[in-house]
Design goal:
Layout (H helix, E strand, L loop, with lengths): L7 E6 L5 H13 L6 E6 L5 H5 L3 E9 L2 E2 L1 H14 L7 E8 L4 H14 L2 E2 L4 E4 L5 H5 L6 H19 L4
Amino acid sequence: MQVTPSNSLLIIYHSMTRGTHQMVQACAAAAQNEPNVNVIVKHASQTEASDVLNANGLIFATPEYLGSMSGIMKDCFDRTYYACLEKIVGRPYALMVCAGSDGQGAVRQIERIVTGWRLKPVAPPVIVNVSAQTPERILSDKRLSESQLSPCIELGNLFAAGLAMGLF
């Protein structure tokens, strides 16, 4: 049986145009304000099954591409899924999506995967809609506003406080 470190929050992300990365930075900074939580931020391409197994809580952050999670985030799940299956049941998770439209495709995909892991959602998905609908806007670096980052900060505060208090 694997022993997990106390109050460890792993944020797994992918970002190509910096929108999702800004969301992760805001969420992680807020979570790090809780002294009893160790916040670990890992790019999806660098995340291994051992990282997932050692985390007490997980936040997945992805851009939505063509109505789906990013390919690199999917690759992360492909590489870690079976090694973690039945070993992380009941752990808390949350989800953040940076989307050009509604973000629901990426949310549905990840929710299906984490349902197989039997993770427990602790908050509704945070979807930041950047309304990028042209090739130029889709591919351009994003600069999120304070109001767009606010739900990410709230999620970081909520998740870290819940871990620290043993609520999940």
